[in-house]
Write the structure tokens for this entry.
Amino acid sequence: MITVIANLKGGTGKSTVTFNLAVWLISTGRRTTVIDLDPQRTLSDAAALRVEEEIQPSIRVQAGTFQDVTLPEDAEEIIIDVGTADLGSFKQAIMIADRILIPVTPSQADIWSTQRFVAFLYKNTHGNPPESLTFLNRANTNKAIQASDEAAAALDELPGVRLLPQRLSGRAVFRDSFSEGRAVFELQPRSIASREFKSLAETLFGRDHRSVIDRLRKQKTSTTIDHAFRQALATPSAKPRAMDRGAYEDVIAVSATDTAHENLGQEQPGNKKHKTKESKKRKKASKEKRGKKGKIVADGKKAKKTKKRKKTKKGKREKKGT
């Protein structure tokens, strides 16, 4: 994905945000290409300081005009810092971008500039601008000051751009870390500024992001399976027969659900033993309920009948004796 960090107005912290995002992406193991198209080269200076101080991971930045840089095909993420001093490269970067990230400081001038920038994007992409995301940068840390909330409300109503709820506050650690060639989460990993930045980065790029190729490599099943068979496996009622599945045995292993279904239809030897023990218990219990001649005495009516029969037999014996 190509992400361009841009704004028509200067001083919004584009280079600082781009540098921190680059360090975060590379730290997470993603193949990232960093491009600096801003003639001021602030991003390139911070990356060069990082290499000079041997801070790992190192950040390699391509700098120059748009014609001087290359876009690697195997890169997972490409982030580009642009400036209006080179308007030609600025426009070309916008044309190839998948999305535009617009840092905005909480001021009326920045709101006006963002509004013009949205119109600029629409005009220079032939009415088909990329996804445009904006967020508040250098927001007020004092909750009593309402400028940040007012700026957020104005950006939220601005058509053509989506406001992210994450904010980066105007804290000195952003400036200090950038001047030392470090990301904010490297200089002060437990700070509020670090948590704010990580929340923004995870919103933009995801926490467990992997490229499409990496996801396909980690799949247990082969991608050569036809869709009909995959759907049949997912539907229990349409479970394929053994003869239908034979052609796929070299491609996909039998799933756990299939083996479970098959095991249900087979009787295990251990289950037989368990059943015979239980049947013996039931037979024993039924024998205890039966009388000596095998007649059930648990029922109240039948118990009375057996008692009457016993009495009559005793009476007959007594008569015979007399």
Summary: Confidence is low (pLDDT under 50) at residues 209-226, 232-275, 292-307. Residues 300-321 form the longest helix (22 residues).
